[in-house]
Write a structure and sequence with these properties.
Blueprint: H1 7-27, E1 33-36, H2 41-47, E2 54-55, E3 62-68, H3 73-89, E4 92-98, H4 104-117, H5 122-131, H6 138-147, H7 152-161, H8 163-179, E5 187-190, E6 193-196, H9 201-220
Helix pairs in contact: 3-9, 4-5, 4-7, 5-6
Length: 222
């Protein structure tokens, strides 16, 4: 069992969460900002990671890493546009990074989604939660799992029995966001091209192009 956080650690964590939440709200009202982070060693490690929730596509030549929170309105706004752009492109692999910065309800929803990953249902549950406009209560989360074809009793079991794995995934996501200096959600890493903020479908398509271009420069330099 993990040791309880000290008072200082709890205060430090609350400060980090507070800063991230404020930054995420600000991102909803600002234009998306993109930059090439190919010279950052973390980018390569993050886009090539395996084992976490994701959605593979046969013949994919670009990985899009998605940092989101299920209570982030900007994330929800951008999600349908991202899905349309990914479908139209046809060559984008998705790697999901749950980063629950909006408090306990966000973290619980993220844990449910990650538990669904063990049933091979993460993309479907993620999609439903991103489109959900109700509060993320237990009945709403249960409905999302069942509507995706999941076993709710197994979800409840995995939340306990596989808690260390879920903890590790969430911790890794937080570390990855920190390594990329991401201040809030949503954020998207397309190859070595990082964009922070909600995007339209056309902007996602441009990000994919920028990501592939940056990726070619990245590979030619190594």
């Amino acid at each position: 069992m993990a040791r309880p956080l000290s008072r200082r650690e709890r205060v430090s964590l609350l400060v980090v969460i507070g800063v991230a939440v404020v930054a995420s709200f600000l991102l909803q009202f600002s234009a998306p900002i993109g930059r090439d982070v190919g010279d950052h060693g973390a980018a390569l490690q993050i886009v090539t990671a395996r084992g976490g929730p994701g959605r593979d596509v046969k013949g994919a030549d670009l990985t899009l890493v998605v940092f989101t929170d299920y209570q982030c309105s900007a994330c929800k706004l951008a999600h349908p546009a991202m899905e349309r752009a990914v479908k139209a492109d046809g060559r984008v692999r998705l790697l999901y990074k749950d980063w629950p910065i909006f408090g306990p309800a966000s973290e619980h929803a993220a844990r449910i989604a990650i538990a669904a990953h063990f049933q091979g249902l993460y993309p479907a549950v993620h999609d439903r939660l991103m489109r959900e406009r109700r509060a993320l209560s237990r009945p709403v989360l249960r409905q999302a799992v069942l509507a995706s074809g999941g076993d709710w009793k197994r979800i409840e079991h995995d939340l306990v029995s596989r808690a260390p794995e879920i903890d590790l995934i969430l911790a890794r996501n937080h570390i990855d966001a920190s390594r990329l200096n991401i201040a809030g959600t949503p954020a998207y890493l397309a190859g070595p091209y990082l964009v922070v903020g909600a995007l339209s479908e056309s902007q996602f398509r441009q990000v994919f192009a920028n990501g592939r271009s940056a990726q070619r420069r990245w590979r030619s330099a190594t």
